[in-house]
Amino acid sequence: MERIKPSIYSGLAMFIAGIVFFCVVSPALGADDVPRMDKDELKALLDNPDVVILDARTSSDWNKSENKIKGAHRLDQSNWQNLETMYPKEKTIVVYCS
Questions:
Q1: Residue 95: left if φ>0, alpha if ψ -120 to 50, beta else—which one?
Q2: Are the C-beta atoms of residues 95 and 34 closer than 8 Å to each other?
Q3: 29 and 50 part of one domain
Q4: Is the pTM of this model over 0.70?
């Protein structure tokens, strides 16, 4: 019987650690903590100057679509990291993707 090489054990350990992370830790960091609203709640906010609506679709999807929320701005995917500095903290940011 051939012995299993130690590198296989470390690879297996990393694989198991990845599964644990995605099944246990990842949901705690995910979208469950993000407040959600339905279309009627958003509709009531459309003319509010303290609300910024961002469309997260790719530029090609944005350009092809005839359906856009009134007053929405397209958020370029390269700007996700800068989102917190792009708008004043007192604004309500609504991000959507259709």
A1: beta
A2: no
A3: no
A4: no
Which residues does residue 54 pair with via DSSP β-bridges, in sequence order? 73, 95
pLDDT per position as a tens digit, 2-15: 555 555 555 555 55
At 60, is the secondary structure helix, strand, or coil? helix
Domain around 1:
1-33
Cα 57 to Cα 1, 54, 60, 61, 97, distances in angstroms: 55, 9, 8, 6, 5
**Identity (one letter) of the amino acid at 36?**
R
Encode 9-43: b = buried (16+ Cβ within 10 Å), e = exposed: eeeeeeeeeeeeeeeeeeeeeeeeeeeeeeeeeee
Q: Are residues 50 and 29 in the same domain?
A: no
**Which residue has 């609300």 as its token pair?**
51
